[in-house]
Amino acid sequence: MNSYLKDNLYSLRKEIQDIAAKCGRDYENIQIIAVSKNFPSEHIRTMYECGQKNFGENRAQEMIDKFKELEDLDIDWHFIGRIQTNKIKYIVQIADYIHSVWRLKEIDEIQKRAELINKVQKIFLEVNVSGEVTKAGLKPSEIENFIINVMKTNAYPNIEIIGLMTMAPYTDDENIIRKTFHDLRQIRDKLQLKYKTIKELSMGMSNDYKIAIEEGATYLRIGTRIFGERPYK
C-alpha cells in the first residue's frame, strides 16, 4: 500500500507540473490538499513522509481523532465539509483552514472560538457558482455584501478571509465545469481589487483538477486520485 500511495502522489505532482507549465503557471503556487476522509492515519503518515503537508477532512470527529494520532507531525489541516455550528469549537482548535463557510452564524461562532484561543482563523467562502439547489454556498450576487459584513466591521478580528471555494457540477461536460471555475476566478479577481487577502481559489477535485489548474486554482482537494476508491463506513 505504501508504494501505491507514493506512486500516486508522485505521478500527480508530475501531472500538475506539466499542466502548470503548459498554461504558464508556477507549480509552486498550486497546493495539493490530500483528502483523507475514511482513510486511516497510517496513510496520512505515509503521504507526510513524501513531503505532503496539507490534508483535508470533512467530518469534525474524524479530524479530531486523526489529529490526536498524528500530533507529532506538522500537518496543515483543512476542514472541507458541511459545517455544523455545534462542531465549530472542535474545528477551530485543529483546522488551519476552513473551506466551507457561507453563513454569518458560522462566522459568529468561528470568531467566538478563535478569540478564546487567540487564533486568527483562515477561511474560504463557499460559493455556489453553478446555482445547484442541492449545494450549499453563497450566490455570486451575495458575496460582496457578506464580505462587507465581515471585514468592514471590527466584530471579527480573529477571522481572515483568504479566498473562495466552489465545487463544479458532477458532469462529463467539460464546458460546464470550466465555466464554473472560470466564473469563480473572475469573482476572485474583482474582489481582490478591494480586499487584498482574498487571493486563493479552492477548486478542483479528482475528477476535474486538470481544468481547475487551467482556470487558476491554488488549492486542489484531491482524494481518490491519491488514496484510491474510498472505503465508505
Describe the 3D structure:
With 233 residues, the protein is an alpha/beta fold. It has a single domain, classed as Alanine racemase (TIM Barrel). Helices cover 42% and strands 16% of the residues. The chain has helices at residues 2-22, 41-49, 60-69, 88-94, 104-116, 143-151, 174-192, 209-214, 224-227; strands at residues 31-35, 54-57, 76-79, 97-101, 121-126, 159-165, 200-202, 219-222. α3 packs parallel to α4 (88-94) and α4 packs across α5. The model has no long low-confidence stretch (mean pLDDT 96).
Estimate the strand proportion: 15-25%
Number of helices: 9
Structural class: alpha/beta
CATH topology: TIM Barrel
Radius of gyration: 17 Å
* Overall pLDDT score: 96
C-alpha geometry: globular
Low-confidence stretches: none
Task: Determine the fraction of residues in helical runs and give it as a percent range.
Answer: 40-55%
Describe the strand arrangement of the main beta sheet, using strand numbers.
7-6-5-4-3-2-1-8
CATH architecture: Alpha-Beta Barrel
Number of domains: 1
H and E string: HEHEHEHEHEHEHEHEH
Largest sheet: 8 strands, parallel
List the helices and strands and how they pair.
Blueprint lengths: L1 H21 L8 E5 L5 H9 L4 E4 L2 H10 L6 E4 L8 H7 L2 E5 L2 H13 L4 E6 L16 H9 L7 E7 L8 H19 L7 E3 L6 H6 L4 E4 L1 H4 L6
Parallel strand pairs: 1-2, 1-8, 2-3, 3-4, 4-5, 5-6, 6-7
Helix pairs in contact: 3-4, 4-5
